[in-house]
Amino acid sequence: MSGLTVKRLVAGYGGEPVLREVDFEVPEGGLLAVLGPSGCGKTTLLRVLAGFHPVASGEVWLGGRLLTSEVPPEKRGIGIVPQEGALFPHLSVAGNVGFGLSREERRGGRVEELLDLVGLSGFGARMPGQLSGGQAQRVALARALAPRPGVVLLDEPFSALDAGLREELRADVRATLRAAGATALLVTHDQEEALGIADLVAVLRDGVVAQLARPQTVYTSPADLGVALFVGEAMTFPGVARGGSVETPLGVLPTSGEGFGTVLLRPEQLVLGAHGVPSTVDDVLFHGHDATVLLRLPDGTSVRSRVQGKIPVRAGDSVSLSVRGSALFFGSTP
Ligand SMILES: Nc1ncnc2c1ncn2[C@@H]1O[C@H](COP(=O)(O)OP(=O)(O)OP(=O)(O)O)[C@@H](O)[C@H]1O
């Protein structure tokens, strides 16, 4: 296993670049999530890395080896977990997992070792049509890991699964990749997925990496307003920051930055209680694990609070609002 380095990568279609200058590094044994909106070039990036799409310029290094366009896909040492698994339907589970292995490796117990790793011991004789969606994705992961690739690429691997299963499989895939010591790159448009699974997140926007950092850093210290809005729910207000604070419809809040700009708060920062700014509850959206309370301030500004546990209010109630922590502030560029 080995690290993956992408340097100044440019690629596109018909002379029109989609990836303009992409730079990142996945350390050996690390899991990087490339997060970006639909159409930003995630699939193109995977196709370039896998050797299915040419680069216009730039370099891809895998474990000290430069993967030029002359290195064909099968010689790259890259494993792929496609969307919805794409198992070979005419091969058994064992046949799928052993597909890229030599006869000696298949006989040496590698297939059983991988099935054990993904929690599917004893499933070798089943056909893909006899598996659930989650099981099929586990088999696809086992198949990708079997030849001990330098890096595993995962293309929105949970998108076809329902919410509960997605979360469970996410944890299992992370544990499996760790146990295998695999270096992995996952692409997704789902910020919760990217923040939840990866060691590092690269936010891809307009053909470049807008931020590359640990999930918590991307959420709490986003590189700019665009990243902040993309990685989580937020409320924004115009404001002027001065001397470590900024005036907002929710009162004067601590912040960093100076001058004109945009103040950003996350719904979990708004606390309902007896103190603070008066507001009226417009509605309560119950999500099961938590709830969003929609509120209106006296000046007409709409805000949202994320509430866990018992919901203390209902539509029409008057409640005071205070803010926990400091506000993010993004200065306007003149
Ligand atoms: N074969 C192609 N020919 C021309 N343009 C293409 C081709 N494939 C993709 N594109 C364009 O390249 C851009 C990036 O597409 P890509 O599929 O890489 O995005 P993505 O981030 O994977 O999107 P999604 O999340 O919707 O799958 C889009 O504007 C798309 O229209």
Automatic annotation (TrEMBL):
Regions crossing the membrane: none
Pfam families the record matches: ABC_tran, TOBE_2
Keywords on record: ATP-binding, Cell membrane, Ion transport, Iron, Iron transport, Membrane, Nucleotide-binding, Transport
Domain annotation ABC transporter: ranges: 4-231
Entry-linked InterPro entries: AAA+_ATPase, ABC_SmlMolc_Importer, ABC_transporter-like_ATP-bd, ABC_transporter-like_CS, ABC_transpr_FbpC, Mo/tungstate-bd_C_term_dom, P-loop_NTPase, Transp-assoc_OB_typ2
Molecular functions per Gene Ontology: ATP binding
Protein name: Iron(III) transport system ATP-binding protein
Superkingdom, natural source: Bacteria
Alphabetical list of PROSITE patterns matching this protein: ABC_TRANSPORTER_1, ABC_TRANSPORTER_2
